[in-house]
Amino acid sequence: MIEIIGYIFIAVGLMFDFFGCLGLVRLPDVYNRLQASTKCVTLGTCSILFGLFLFKGFTASGIKALLCIVFLILTAPVSAHAIARGAHISGVKLWDKSVCDKYEEDKKEM
Amino acid sequence: MKSRIILFFLAILVWLGLTWPPDWQHISIGILVAIFVAFMTGDMFTKRPHLFRHPKRYFWLLYYLPIFIWECIKANFDVAYRVGHPDLPINPGIVKVKTSLKSDTGLTFLANSITLTPGTLSVDVDQEEGFLYVHWLNVKDKDIEKATKLIIGRFEPILKRIFE
Asked: What pLDDT is attached to residue A106?
């Protein structure tokens, strides 16, 4: 029974990872691509690792999978934030059809 | 000193996780390494160690986790829908959000929560005035107050109880 749940988690994780990669190819600019890659890939990978934990239980590899989930959730958004900020400061433009850019307006005032 | 002790216990926990079936050799090396790490970097870990003593904060953290995970799952379906749709129904832009959180940890958690929830990605933080710049995949409102309510309305009160 628990193995079936593990398989389901791994399948869902693979699906989300796939959507994350698809977003990386299809979306127009750096910021939108970061959206797809951070959200989908973080949860997808966490889901795969959780499926692995369900398979292995509280053994050496299972506990390491849980630790990896914690580190992923803590670090993935931080790196995305760093990339987005760095891109904006070094002058990467938003997509043409973007609605507004409050950050650009405030940077001019500073 | 208190900050060092907290860091020591956290380091031991992570070490136990890394070397799971516990064994006296692993544990004794782990204690030595944790003492070294806590001694070297302990004073950078937290500036207000007394906050760790309030049990209420842990309950709020437990209350926050399911909400966060639920939002995270919703975010994934939202982004997957937008990416998979043939016309790419996106409407991106960077909006400004006002927050009343002041502490470093609170702001970090808020920015991380924003990044992992539906269609939003934090780009920069202005800590002195409490503004966050958020990239939004589907801008619903450019106004600061309405955007604040839509993006961080659910998290901010809880995070305030945990970290402030």
From this structure: 67
Q: How far apart are CA B6 and CA B50, in angstroms?
A: 11
Domains of chain B, by residue range, sit at 2-51, 78-163
Q: Is B153 on the interface with A (CB under 8 A)?
A: no
Of A34, A60, A103, the CB nearest to B124: A103
Residue among B2, B95, B107, B120 nearest B53 (CA): B2
Mean local confidence (pLDDT), B113-134: 79
pLDDT in tens, A69-97: 988 888 888 888 888 888 888 877 777 76
Q: What is the CATH number of domain B78-163?
A: 3.30.70
Contacts of A105 (CB under 8 A, 6+ apart): none
- How many angstroms separate the CA of residue A29 from the nearest CA in chain B? 10
Q: What confidence score (pLDDT) does residue A49 get?
A: 92
Quickly state the pLDDT bin for B150 (edges 50, 70, 90).
Answer: confident
> Hey, is the C-beta of B22 within 8 angstroms of any chain A C-beta?
no
Decide if B112 and A78 are in contact by the 8 Å CB cutoff. yes
Chain A: give the shortest CA distance to residue B136, in Å: 9
